[in-house]
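Hi team,

Filling in the usual template for the complex we talked about on Friday. All components are listed, including any nucleic acid strands or ligand strings, so the model treats them as one assembly.

SUBMITTER: L.P.
PURPOSE: interface mapping
COMPONENTS: three
RESIDUES: 218
SEQUENCES:
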Amino acid sequence: MVAIADGKRHAAQIVKRLKAAYPDARCALDFQSPLQLLVATILSAQCTDTRVNIVTKDLFGKYPDAKAFAAARPSELERAIQSTGFFRNKAKNIKNCCRELVEHHGGEVPQDLDSLVKLPGVGRKTANVVLGTAFGIPTGVVVDTHIARLSRRLGMTRHSDPVKIERDLMGQLPKREWIDFGHRMIAHGRRICVARKPKCDQCPLDSICPRIGVADRS
DNA sequence: ATCCCGAGGG
DNA sequence: CCCTCTGGAT
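RESULT (copied from the run log):
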């Protein structure tokens, strides 16, 4: 058993080293408004941020606001986002989501978790991204595929359920760290602590990492 | 648990 | 070929 205080101490060490390694980590998705971040985050499901940015470059010019997305022709929207994968689901979700925004939120993105999660295609992860990064409201900790993987490897959680991982992380991190912690963990997961063959020899966290579930190098 | 689904890396 | 990429709905 690891005591709670030890969990917090371990987390503080991780935060300190992440800050040193990624001093100005920020959201890798390109956006200029809460709505754009919401759409980009829906598109980011099982897709690289680079690919999302390629698609949104033209998409946001073609659909400037929620009303435009709500009125989109499904076939055209699908074609515009096709390369991000899951394009039928994503197109339907974006259209219906923006219809909800127009009909129930004055065309704006709501700033609370309950309203966001009720939107079609918006789960807890997407809601936390929008609240934290677009509005600066640390409501929870973003748990995506990177943060889930790194949190387990680093011994910050033993769970695989994102909700349980989020609860563990929230208990170890001060609220003011939640948003940047997410950005830095994702940056670290993309560059060093990658899924397949993590580059432990280049990792600034190596000396404090239990490497849980990481295969031994021979 | 399963489905949606294209693109890139190894 | 296989695995992974800032998931969510059923």
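MY TAKE: Residues 45-48, 50-51, 82-90, 196-197 of chain A lie near DNA strand B (CB under 10 Å from a C1'). The CA atoms of residues 45 and 84 of chain A lie 8 Å apart.

Thanks, L.
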